[in-house]
Amino acid sequence: MPEYKPEKGLKIFWEDNFQIKATRLGSDFVIEANKEGLISLATQLLSMAYNNVPSGFHIHYEDVTCLEDGSASFVIEIM
Known about the structure:
Pfam families: Imm32 (PF15566). InterPro entries: Imm32. This protein has one domain (4-77). It is 20% helix and 30% strand. It has one helix at residues 35-50; strands spanning 4-5, 9-10, 20-25, 28-33, 58-61, 74-77. The mean pLDDT is 94.
């Protein structure tokens, strides 16, 4: 599990061949992912939860960086 370091943040890892798509359907927000995409997201969420990551830390998910083309952007942030 990636470790959080205040001076460097949290190293984000992606499984090879990951695919993640996010769409807005009315009032719903849908995340679709293949196995590698789900493992990548789960690892990132667990890393944020178990590494004493400070409140306000967040990860941006966008189609220009990690989501499939045309995906809706979203942010996951620690409260």
